[in-house]
From TrEMBL:
UniProt-listed InterPro entries: GlcNAc_MurG (IPR006009), Glyco_trans_28_C (IPR007235), GlycoTrans_28_N (IPR004276)
HAMAP family per record: MurG
Key word Cell membrane present: yes
One Gene Ontology term, aspect cellular component: plasma membrane
Lineage of source species: Bacteria, Candidatus Yanofskyibacteriota
Family: Belongs to the glycosyltransferase 28 family. MurG subfamily.
Gene for this chain: murG
GO aspect biological process, one term: cell division
Alphabetically ordered keywords of this record: Cell cycle, Cell division, Cell membrane, Cell shape, Cell wall biogenesis/degradation, Glycosyltransferase, Membrane, Peptidoglycan synthesis, Transferase
Limits of the Glycosyltransferase family 28 N-terminal domain: 3-141
Protein name according to UniProt: UDP-N-acetylglucosamine--N-acetylmuramyl-(pentapeptide) pyrophosphoryl-undecaprenol N-acetylglucosamine transferase
Amino acid sequence: MKILLVGGGSVGSIAPLLSVKRYLEKQDHKIQFIYFGSKSGPERELVEKEKIAYYSIPAGKWRRYFSLKNIFDVFVTLTGFFIALAKLKRLRPDLMLSAGSFVSVPVASSAKLLGIKIVIHQQDLQPSLSNKIIYPFCDKLTVSLPESQKLFFQGLGLLKRRSKAISKIVLTGNPVRADLDLGDKKRAIKFFSLNTELPVLLVLGGSTGAEGLNKLIVGALEPLTKVFQIIHVTGKNKTSKTAQNSNYHAFEFLSSEFPDAIKIADIVLSRAGFSTITELAYCKKMSVIIPMPNSHQEDNGQYLFSKRAAIILRQDGVTSENLTTFLRKLIFEYNLQKIVIKNISKLMPKNSAERIGKVILNII
């Protein structure tokens, strides 16, 4: 059996794929995996660490607003379709699994033409544009949240068509990396050179970094480091050379060290990518979320707010000064922290990789 994993552009679309891969390997060690991704995305390094054959596929970014780039990217996507078609004819996987990315559109289209089974996973609350395009011809769609189910078949008027659409959707939750359970506080203290007398603030900007968050933290560094140890994941080439403090530890990216960092964190300040939200829920973390403005992350943030599962701040209303004041007060709000931690831990099932894995095994 051979399974094609597809994702690109960010690490967020890779984490669930690799989690499902590890579950399937436990069920059958003879399963082979191949990966189609973007040419220059951050996913390549992680995939190759898993010793999975990696193939880059050109794909245009699908924008929901008018842009002349959309016209050019139509031709890029068509090129990607023919390249994917040629590779799939040669590699012949039994099934394609994608967690939503612009790369998945040309690959899924070519896979359908060749009769390859297609399973797509929706992480965020709002359906991604790529998943909405693929959904009508996929075999199964797995979703992280029950609220996402109805968003895929809204507007389907005919009862029979609507019933068929519903039957394709399976609620699974969102898989997390398998090593999150291996986080160790003692190891974190040693690796990050932490002062055990101060609480730890972990700042996550996502795999590609978050310039807005980075500026807020650097601007508040002096007062924040008087009350916090800060572990700051800045994104590639986004670490500030001027930010120097013994209680501030900046990294472009954390890989094997990440479980230790999240284990020791007292508060996590983050964007609202759903892969990160899933990790925060799994680890039961007190979370302060600043969604990326004008993006699907605002819907994710609103969902967390409605569940009282995180503190949500709007970027246009946050300054280094008021963020510092807020975080210094929050560390002593024990009752609030208990409520938020309890609610975020109940967001979704914990055995999501197993659930998606079983969906795959049932249709191959």
